[in-house]
Design a protein that fits this description.
Length: 295
């Protein structure tokens, strides 16, 4: 996903801010006849003319912007404002498919569908891959099992072999594997934050029972929300030590390469500290904070 953003400096670092143009994606020029969003929807239902839905988006865009901004701030993904905005519009379209004016005003009617679409967007950002049905779930399990058998390699030859085995394009197979790799990192972090009395979750459980991650998204959401409550230094050190993006939990860079798991010594040098023990203590303190939030 790619969003149009600018960068704004804060005390804790750079924060992505949407460009002004992304707030006016659906503005018509010249502006259409003034109508309420509900009137636009009803005219669309009566005529089937998509012009009226375009007018709905024109007049409803400020509310769409507010919704996207709310989600971006809540989940600390300001760099994905336009993605969330598009997800909001997708939710409106999905809700419109089954809407009749007898069901009441459209916007309140569509709210649940819109929020579900936006939550799906957030989860896809974090996992890099969604599992929409049982067939894809089976293929995901098979892809991750083959990935383990091939020694967890991601070279072109290995990906091509896995793709052929699951009857998918290499690009799709690679996306599935990256998602699995990311969730391995999340499992590793989850183990660090669990109760000492809890039964440990092994990495192999991703291959045997990936439904624990992919069909219980709330588990990742709870961990992510707890992570965002940490201060800037704690988030940065923890993310670099476990090898994931502190903003969206991605485990690859923009070129698709896996992010490295940095040692305490590496992080110490970058932060200008005198001892790796300081980094280790910061990471342990951060894990304890997460543990208190999610328990």
């Amino acid at each position: 996903m790619k969003s149009s953003t600018t960068t704004q400096n804060t005390e804790e670092g750079a924060t992505a801010v949407p460009e002004q143009s992304t707030y006016k994606l659906y503005q018509l020029d010249p502006a259409p006849e003034k109508r309420t969003p509900q009137e636009c929807i009803e005219r669309y239902l009566e005529t089937g003319d998509a012009t009226f839905f375009a007018q709905f988006l024109h007049w409803h865009e400020p509310a769409i912007n507010a919704k996207a901004k709310e989600f971006a701030q809540k989940y600390a993904v300001q760099g994905h404002f336009s993605d969330l905005k598009q997800a909001c519009v997708q939710g409106l379209l999905e809700a419109l498919d089954g809407y009749e004016k007898e069901k009441g005003p459209f916007v309140p009617y569509a709210e649940r569908t819109v929020e579900r679409a936006m939550h799906d967007c957030i989860r896809t950002m974090r996992t890099g891959f969604s599992v929409p049905n049982d067939t894809e779930y089976y293929l995901l399990r098979k892809a991750m099992r083959l990935f383990a058998e091939y020694g967890e390699k991601t070279d072109d030859e290995t990906i091509a072999a896995i793709a052929a085995a699951i009857h998918r394009e290499p690009k799709t197979a690679l996306e599935m594997i990256r998602s699995g790799m990311q969730n391995m990192r999340v499992l590793e972090l989850d183990r660090e934050t669990g109760d000492e009395d809890d039964e440990p979750m092994e990495i192999g459980s991703l291959i045997d029972e990936p439904s624990a991650l992919f069909f219980q998204a709330y588990q990742m959401d709870a961990l992510y929300d707890a992570f965002q409550k940490l201060d800037y230094k704690e988030r940065e050190m923890l993310a670099r030590h476990y090898g994931f993006c502190p903003e969206c939990f991605s485990v690859t860079d923009k070129d698709g390469r896996s992010l490295p798991k940095e040692t305490y010594e590496d992080i110490m040098l970058d932060f200008g500290l005198s001892s790796p023990d300081t980094v280790e203590k910061t990471c342990k303190r951060a894990l304890e904070k997460i543990r208190k939030v999610i328990q």
